[in-house]
Amino acid sequence: MSGRTRGRVCPQRTCVGCRERTDKDVLLRVVLIGGSLIPDLRGRLPGRGAYVHSVPSCLEQAVRRRAFNRAFRGPGPFDLADLREHVEREARTSTERP
Ligand SMILES: [Zn+2]
What we know:
The chain is α+β, with helices and mostly antiparallel strands. The protein has a single domain (12-95), classed as 2-Layer Sandwich (Hypothetical Cytosolic Protein, Chain: A). It is 31% helix and 21% strand. The chain is globular. The structure holds zinc ion. Residues 15, 17-18, 20, 53, 58 line the site of zinc ion (ZN).
């Protein structure tokens, strides 16, 4: 599903859920702030980031395999409320067809 880049090299990142390597723009950046995983919608929050597809299946895979613990080098558990809410909201809007 990758398009041609016509010489422009896009930064690549790996989804911590499905481990697919893809353009950074496609993935949601997640940062750890005070024990909570926060979706970094503008890509501007400071600190270490992890990248995940903004879909529930990838988020759940990442949680199940403790990918966030590895990415943020912490034992967790992390508060996923904000991140989950964001991903689920996106999933709902993308399935709603006008
Ligand atoms: Zn993924």
